[in-house]
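Exercise 7.
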Amino acid sequence: MIRLGFLVLFALLAGCGTDPDEPTAPPADQPRLPNIIVIYVDDLGYADVGSYGAVGVETPSIDFLADNGIRFTDAHAAAATCTPSRYALLTGEYGFRSRARVLAGDASLLIRPGQPTLPAMLREAGYATAVVGKWHLGLGDGDVDWNGTIEPGPLEIGFDYAFLLPATGDRVPTVYVENHSVVGLDPADPITVSYGRKVGDRPTGTENPELLRVTANPQHSATIVNGVSRIGYMAGGESALWIDEEFPDVFTEKALAFIRDNKEGPFFLFHSFHDIHVPRLPHPRFQGKSRMGPRGDAIVQTDWMTGEIVRELEALGIADDTLLIFTSDNGPVLDDGYDDRAVELVGEHNPSGPFRGGKYSAFEAGARVPTIVYWPGTVPPGDSDAVVSQVDFYASLAALIGVELDTAEAIDSRNVLDALLGSSDTGRHVLFKESMRTFSIRRGNLKYIEPLAADANLPRWFHTKNIEHGLSKEPQLYDLSVDIGEQNNLAAERPGVVAELQAMLESIEDRTERERK
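Solution. The predicted structure, written as tokens, is:
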């Protein structure tokens, strides 16, 4: 990787014609590298916050960011599910390149040590780096020793500090991992995890439904922790078990502590929320704060967590030195395995806004997500319809701090910094997205969804989701300029365009290095 931060570049240019053995310091008024925070909400739909049209829930802190930053209307996660979206954001590569799919709770680390990553690039440029919250990118190699040193993990791929849910809230192990160890584990009560057979004597949702606070589908009916059945089986670790309702306070305090410890900057914080993913168990002080039950209350909780970060930046006097990106890992889902009345209580609210589909879907709502860039004093407030993908954060942030990327690094990431900072309305010309077992591509306003392969292996649970998944054995072509709801399939009328876009898809799949601009 070629590394040339703008401070080093300045020193090299300023040193021309001088003794090369004499170090040249940057001038005292050289601007500092900006802090960077990515707030990554889980399963937050395009219209799930007030500034994007939410009904039945108020989000004043997020709306403050939208009113005082850039609110993007055509911004996208790289995939319609969380693991490949997270992989793409952190590596600048689409998830399919590493066969990224929604991982089990005991999966190995998906991003391999030595692979270029966004945090590693930033750390090499002088940043302190941290991830706080949901991980769901795997840990370790093979069988994880939850009772010993858990590695490789975030610290081996560019983060200085990590405080994690190892996978997500609906999967075991239901413990926090800080850096390389389970938090609060009693060595006399070791953890055992299995995704194939029952271990230990904890009750399960299948065997003891009377113990459940919220009923769950068969996929989520294994080990019960905190009155909620999860995916997978877990024994031991009683002293280390999390309490779901404490997530907002625990994660927020860890994030704030990192910011305080590194207030002199520069720092990079990947603040990955568990909300509003299932199981939705908001803290009691947020319960009943929306008209949509636990899902709406979890959105209120998300808003509070976001506001706490902004308030801390202001209190420390570093808000103007901090670029904050607020976004989501994929589109919305109401019923995702637990009967928390999300469907019954949604009322007039439409989490997908004007778009079709939701989480898992190849239609627009699968990955078109609320995205706000907030940087007071630098980014002008306003709306932008620039096409932006999270896979582009890597190259764009590298450009921001003056780092030149190697052609084999972040091969799918493009520099759209001007769009992110509001100085251009032009983002991507071609947009690629992954969904369950298929890909889609946009060129301008023409969107093509490739046919589902005849041998596509869809998981059994997928068919239980009440979502328009967009999968078809026939090609689909939509003109979003006149058909934002993707109702009129033009593929049969425009076979030439279908062939062109299919060829573009295949060229992306074959790419091995970044295209030079």
